[in-house]
Structure formats: structure tokens, C-alpha cells
Amino acid sequence: xxxxxxxxxxxxxxxxxxxxxxxxxxxxxxxxxxxxxxxxxxxxxxxxxxxxxxxxxxxxxxxxxxxxxxxxxxxxxxxxxxxxxxxxxxxxxxxxxxxxxxxxxxxxxxxxxxxxxxxxxxxxxxxxxxxxxxxxxxxxxxxxxxxxxxxxxxxxxxxxxxxxxxxxxxxxxxxxxxxxxxxxxxxxxxxxxxxxxxxxxxxxxxxxxxxxxxxxxxxxxxxxxxxxxxxxxxxxxxxxxxxxxxxxxxxxxxxxxxxxxxxxxxxxxxxxxxxxxxxxxxxxxxxxxxxxxxxxxxxxxxxxxxxxxxxxxxxxxxxxxxxxxxxxxxxxxxxxxxxxxxxxxxxxxxxxxxxxxxxxxxxxxxxxxxxxxxxxxxxxxxxxxxxxxxxxxxxxxxxxxxxxxxxxxxxxxxxxxxxxxxxxxxxxxxxxxxxxxxxxxxxxxxxxxxxxxxxxxxxxxxxxxxxxxxxxxxxxxxxxxxxxxxxxxxxxxxxxxxxxxxxxxxxxxxxxxxxxxxxxxxxxxxxxxxxxxxxxxxxxxxxxxxxxxxxxxxxxxxxxxxxxxxxxxxx
Amino acid sequence: xxxxxxxxxxxxxxxxxxxxxxxxxxxxxxxxxxxxxxxxxxxxxxxxxxxxxxxxxxxxxxxxxxxxxxxxxxxxxxxxxxxxxxxxxxxxxxxxxxxxxxxxxxxxxxxxxxxxxxxxxxxxxxxxxxxxxxxxxxxxxxxxxxxxxxxxxxxxxxxxxxxxxxxxxxxxxxxxxxxxxxxxxxxxxxxxxxxxxxxxxxxxxxxxxxxxxxxxxxxxxxxxxxxxxxxxxxxxxxxxxxxxxxxxxxxxxxxxxxxxxxxxxxxxxxxxxxxxxxxxxxxxxxxxxxxxxxxxxxxxxxxxxxxxxxxxxxxxxxxxxxxxxxxxxxxxxxxxxxxxxxxxxxxxxxxxxxxxxxxxxxxxxxxxxxxxxxxxxxxxxxxxxxxxxxxxxxxxxxxxxxxxxxx
Lengths: 571, 407
Fold this sequence. Notes:
Number of helices of chain B: 4
Shape of chain A: globular
Helix content of chain A: 10-25%
Largest sheet of chain A: 7 strands, mixed
Number of strands of chain A: 18
Number of domains of chain A: 4
Oligomer: heterodimer
């Protein structure tokens, strides 16, 4: 997390300004909420508007040491606000934006689509590479190069310890994160033949002395020596297309960009960033940090706006551990409680990763599905958005993962082009197991009623996400509490209560019929094995004249009491 | 940036109460005229557009960025914690490092201890020779030790017999380390010119010349000029020599000390084996080290007492004083049970044993000296940054501070 300092005069002034912006957004809106309707005619919106020109946004890059120390020693002790995500539309969904595009879970994705992922253009022509310099970001070795057609690419190779591993991880993970809605770099598996490479005369590299001197063949060899080589002397690489637009550095997982007028919601309160805790757990994206994000200025509809990328998702599938034995997905880079436990027990208090038997595929890292616990998953360092995730955010994320069928998962994994079919099979199996564990964990944790529909003749139907995903069974009694809703004042007037044993419940006969009227319905599921399902979700419908339209849904209250620090530390 | 107007402050006070709500569901105060969600958000964006400013780094971020720059590029001025000679106490030192080419650097440094040990030297290091296969070090300097312990020669010397001696020593050396395959095989060779000027010791212990004579103790009060040549070969498959929990090192080094006056010439062979046995995914490591040193005089020349292989001190028999045992041969065996507490900190329980002998044939497992203790180590991925060991032997308890690995 990175926050502005408010100690300086400029910082205080900036803080006040941020507060005003927040106030303008209604973040402190109760006092005046009665002046505005709860629902506008265009609710729920499908896309976040970006009305202002963001061309003045300046370059900002977060440095690794600051990000790591701040996250480990400040963010790790952060007490979550417990507030609901703030970039939601009125039906509890994340609208499309420069951050996120609704794909899986919102529409049908084919195996062909997921195998293509973010790819829109042609692959590189590897017949001739011109080296432009060393790659400076990411966990895997690499460099920048121009292909035979003159296009610039960011090249990553496999470490010698994990042939095919790093390149497959990047290739596959970009497909998944694209499907899950994030902006991703177009990545292609291809080859690099040093015999067909040359060095751009202008290519330089920063030396230990700080001097920028010409990139040499020895520099290339220094990179290649640490990487896995094919039998024919070529190297398997993944080439990432340079992102279009003007790259201006990283985005933060907290606060807003002070130089982007369209960036209104603090990033820790963006659901898609909170949900990376679930998506990261599924894929084991341990290097979840601001340094692996990118903001670019692009022109859309004649206006310059910022587009936000998850740039490097190659730390997935257990490919991000260092030379010493460790499994980053169970502990932060430093964690006081596990340190104390190991220190005082002389190491007898074992962490789960110390006794896991990982499969012995060099092309896959420490990645398994049998002992995976998504609530216990840890990235290298926590982000503020990670800390702020609530159960409704996790539910939203889990629904998207649960929508990924076995076929879609295997189609994406197949793009990793593993030479060992058993490795491909194993990775697919693990992802399927982890998907099911996530669904079982988060879809059952809170009331899983989804997709309510009220037809013109008064039949209310809905779904049960936990049952639909096959992670819960039983026969709950569904209850509906019906209310008339005043959109101007927010007041409700009870009408009736109905119930049923299926996902269809009758509406009372006294529902209002006038066009433009609203009703609210609290929906709960009564089943002994899932007591949390008794907490109702609230839905709102508007009478359009032709029938009822869902305009609002809220799964959990606006604010939940934060989990006590002692409990968080224990987890 | 525009200044904050009073109306804004009033608005702030008026609004800064009540629970938080969701953007899309609570349109807020500034938009009573807005008739759509789109308009609400656009108005807020317009408002923010008048308040834009660039990111302002906090002091903490600026400090961390500077620290990262230093870590990546090295300090020009840097602390220097190497003592002039083992046993001199905690050193205070400073160095100045400067690159003279993209990879090669010169480091000028010095240290001083409260017991008067001094060291001043300059080193040129070329780490990328022969396409990154070789590291060349050219080192020249001068050092002085004022009260180096000497307890007599042989395994049966008594702690109560401690004397001390001093020396001053100018030195110049060139060392080349080669990894021919850039992998595990290691070769190293070097030559050194050095002059030992042995003097009476200072401090609270009697000087060595009050207990011995030049006849009873070879090298006493001698000025010896050596041309020291060495060559070694090893197989090193540790992830890093500075910090490892798996892998091992096996090596042998041959030394030739040629006295320019042909009085004190000798040869020495060092054998060393280190093996790390990781347990439970390296959360524990059983680490073993064995070292044998044997010295042979040349013809009728003698080995001066201050050049004899020795045991005792922070990296050998840690429960004994530095230079506690000296003789022509030494055997050292060490075992550590290392416990990983986190990625940066280990504890260790250790046991050291060893002895010195006059004859190589006496290098057996009888008559060994022992100590044991506990250690705490802060480390990075590839280097030990701080080591604190508490060791106990029948001669007492000793505390070791070091900025390097024990083995």
C-alpha cells in the first residue's frame, strides 16, 4: 500500500481535497441522501463513465523496497474498514471500466476464446530477433527485442531449474486473468535462436557502476546461461507485446491517482482489486504487487484516459520461489507470528507447506490442490485491497471462478504447450481442485441467492450459486419479505412474507402496479447446515409498465465489523 | 494547486459524519440536480479535475527509494567490519568504494579496535574476467595487531599460560578465482608478498618474550618476509557460499611460504569439507564441516610460532579464545543444527571439536577439545549479514559477533 503523507502542508491540503472529492461522491452521504433518489433511471450502469481528459497524469513507479517494507510492516497491520466495495453498480456487480471488463460469469466464453485470451494481433516473427536491452521487471530472466517485422516484445525465458515452467505460467495465467476480466498483455509462446539474433547498436544496459553501456553478446550469454535451452540450441520464450499507449508506471492498491480526474474510488475499495485475493489464491499469484501493474494513457473516443493492467502474472503456479526452499503462498515474505512459532518451537511447529508433497514436474512449481485453503493463502506481501476483501467480494470472485468449466480450464492450460502431457494433466487437475475448494469456501459462506427475477404475473425466481456449483446440498426453505420502497426517501413499508422450498417463490397479490413504483424484497434461505444463509440479501425491483426489472441487490450490509486483529493474526 | 476555500472547509465539516455508503447507490451531496447515475459520476470527475496534482512521495517512500538505490548500486562510503587480526575485538571501520569501469571497482578501507588493532588497505576487484569465469583481486595494505594470544605450542597448553605478542605487517597480494564452467568447479590461485614484524605484546597478559626465547620459540622477535603462493581446487554446489542450507563444498588448498632469508620457509595443505543436509524443506539443516591443516617445514627451516595452524575463536572452536591452540597440524570438526525462523533469520545449535598435533599421524579422534552453543544469524538470500554465537567450553563462555558465515 502506498499512501500520501499528510504531515506536510501540501499533504494536509491534499488530504482535504481528497476528502472533498470523496464527499462529492457521496461517501459521507447520509445527511443528504434524502435529497437524491436511491435509484436513477439508468441504474444499474454497465460501464463506469470516464468523462474527463486524463492526459496530465504523470509517470509514477513504486520501488520494490518501499512497497515490500510498507506492505509487510504497515499494511499487514492494517485494520480493514469492513466497508462494501464502492465501484459497484446497484445490483452488486462491477461495471466495465478501464480496470475491468466483464467476461466469464457475465457471458459465455468458449474454449477458443479462452485459448486466445487477450491476443488481438499477430504473433511475433521469430526468424530474426534484434536485442534492445535487458528486461528489468518480473521474476523470470529476459530481455527486450524486436522481431523480424520490427515490433518490440518483452521476452521471458525459463530458468534452467524449470524448463517450460515460467513461459507456460505466463502464457496460461494471462488467459485466465483475461477471462476473469483484467487487462492483460498479449503473450505468445515462440522461440529464440541466438544464431539468428543481432544486437541493436543503440541497445544499452545499466552496469553495477550505474553507467549505461552497450548491451553485448556476453550480456546475452549471462541471461541465457541461467535459462533452459532446447536440444537444438534455441530457447523457448514467451513474448509479450509492448502495451499500446503512453506507459506511466504503476497503479497503487490503495487511494486514488491524484492526477487522474476519472479515478474516484479508492483502489482498496475496488471490488476487482479486492477479488485478486481469490483469483490470486486460485492461480497462486504470489508476486501480487504494485510493481507488477501498469498504467497507460490511451485515447478512446477522442479523449485520453488511463488503462490499468495487471502486467506480470508469471509468478503463478508455484513459479516464484527463490533459491531456498519455501512456499510463498502460505506466508508473507515476513510474518511475525510464524517467526515466533518456529523460533520458540525450534522449528517443530511446522507450516503446512513444509510437509506437502509437491508433484515432481520441473515445468510446474510448488502448486497443489489437496491441501489448498484459499482463506490461508498469502501473497509475498499484503496489499490494502487484499486486506479489505469482504465475503461479498469473495463470493463475487468465487462465482466467476466456479463458472470456469473443466473444459475451459484445460483449454487454457493447453496453451502452455507442455512437452509432458502428464504435467499438463496435473496442472489442469490442480486448478480444478482449487476451483472447487474456492467455490466450497466462499459460495457457502454467505447467502448464495443470485439472479433474482420477478415476472409480470408475480413469480419470483432466483438461483442458488452454491447448489449450482455443486458445493452444497440440502433443501432450504426460501423466504421472501416484500416491501413497498420509496425511491426518494429510502423508506420501506412491509407488504407480506412468502416462502417456498424451491428457487421459485410466489409474490403477494398486493404488489403495486403503477409504472415507476419500487418494491424491495429480502431473500433468505433457511437450512440448518448453513446458518449464514438466513441473513437476507436485499433486492429492489422497479415496475416498468411491462413488468418488474431488477434495479438493486445488496448481499451484505454497507459496513461489517472488521475481524479482530487477533483472529486475523491467527489465520 | 488551488488553495482550499472556506466553503470547501464548511462543506467538509458538514459532510464528514455518518456511515460510508456505496458510490453507485448514494449519489451524494454535490449532485442534487443530477438526473442519472452517469451525471452523478461525471460531476464528481469534473470536481476532481480541478484538484489534480501529481503523486507526492512521502518521506518514508523517499527514504526507502534511496536505500534501495544504495543496496542495488552499493555505498560509496561504507562500513567496514573486518578486524586487522582475529581476537582484536569489535572493529570500527570505514571504506570508500568507487567503480573504475562498468564492473571493476577500487575499495579503500580501514578499521580500528579499542585494543589498538589497525588495518588500512586498498583493493581492486575485477569480477567479470574471462567472460565472467574469473574474479581478480589485487590487495595491498598494512595492519597491526597488539596483543595476539599465544598459549604455547601443542594440544596440552594451559589457558593460564597465556602470553601475547604484537606484529606489524605490510602486505600485497594478487588472487584469481576461476569457475571454468561457471558452475560448481572452483579453482583459485594467488601470490602474496608480506613482511611479518613480530614484536613484544601489549595488554594485560605477559609478553611472549618474557616467557620464551628465540631458541625455545621459533620466530620470536623475528622479521620474516614471505613470498606466499597458493593454489586450490574445490567443488562447490552450495546455492551461495555466503549462506546455504543445502549443497556442499569440498576443496583442498596448497600453500608455499618462501622466506626470503631461508629461515622460516614451509608448506601447508588445507583440506576442507562442508555439507548441508536439509530436513523438512530446509526448515532445519544439519550442517557439518571438517577441516584439516598440515604444515611442513622446508629442509632445516623452521615454522614460526605465529604461522602455525591454530584453533580457537569465532569460526573454529568458538568456546575458546582466539589462537588458543597452535601446532603443525590441526583437526577441526563442527556440526550445527540450523533452524529457520523466517526467510531472514535462523537460529543454530552447534558443537565444535578439534585438536592440534605435532605429528600428522596424531590427527585422530582422541584428546579432542569441545565446545557447544547457540547462535543467531540474520541473512539475505546469499549472504550472512550478522552472526551472534554464544559458545561454552570448559574454559568458559564466549560471545562471538561476526559479519560473515561460520562455514
